[in-house]
Design a protein that fits this description.
It contains nine helices and eight strands. The protein is α/β, with parallel strands linked by helices. The protein has a single domain, classed as Metal-dependent hydrolases (TIM Barrel, Alpha-Beta Barrel), CATH 3.20.20.
Amino acid sequence: MIDSHHHLWKYTTEEFGWIEQDLIRRSFLAPELDTLLQENQVTGAVAVQARTSLEENDFLLDEAAKSSTIKGVVGWVDLKSAEAGTQLDQYQSNSLFKGVREITQGAAATEFLSNPAFNQGVREVTARDLTYDVLIFQDQIPAATAFVDQHPNQRFVLDHAAKPEIRADAFPKNWEKSIREMAERDNLVCKVSGLVTEVRDDAWDASLMERYFYTLLEAFGPQRLMFGSDWPVCLLSSEYARWKDCVTQYLSQLSQDEQQAIHSQTATQFYAL
């Protein structure tokens, strides 16, 4: 099994002031990750940036070099900069560097997704056959769909299924409609990750998450879905094993080939692990 989405950080209040909860207000580094994944029979993982700095790339690549499980790194470069291509070249020589992400969730479309300079930077990503992780909230799906349409040759993955608002008493039908439309782009895959921290109720169980999972399965198909944990952020709502077991429970109804696609094959192919 491949965990397609986790984070690492060496905690400081200056760099991680956005972390408000005591549970994750500490350092999370490669040795702890390796132990956790081995305990859960997860054989590989993709580390994803949490800071918008070139130093984040250096940190994650250093941690990956120490790790027995990290097979790829999704870093960050300043895609609005004229130096984006040079920055990408600086890191692409490391075989663990697979692609980039920008923190676009909650940002106006004009800041990133429809920004001409940013889109020129994405073309630099495409030219180097690197990946791009799309990080948005559910109300940004139309803007993100238009963004993906500008780059038909770019390999995109949607993080956390666009973070739908999850409640027991209401299902976000606008999210469902928009996600199905976005999924029509065949250069886009999706991570089944980060959903537990979008639950607005006090607690969650597998039945609450079921409709969201099957919406994604119908929209993308198993060949375009990949498992992810969003550890350690997921700890705010779930232990690692509980989320993994939840997804495994859903997958048990699928064929072995379909299960293998979501467990590992999609991530392995997308990130060239």
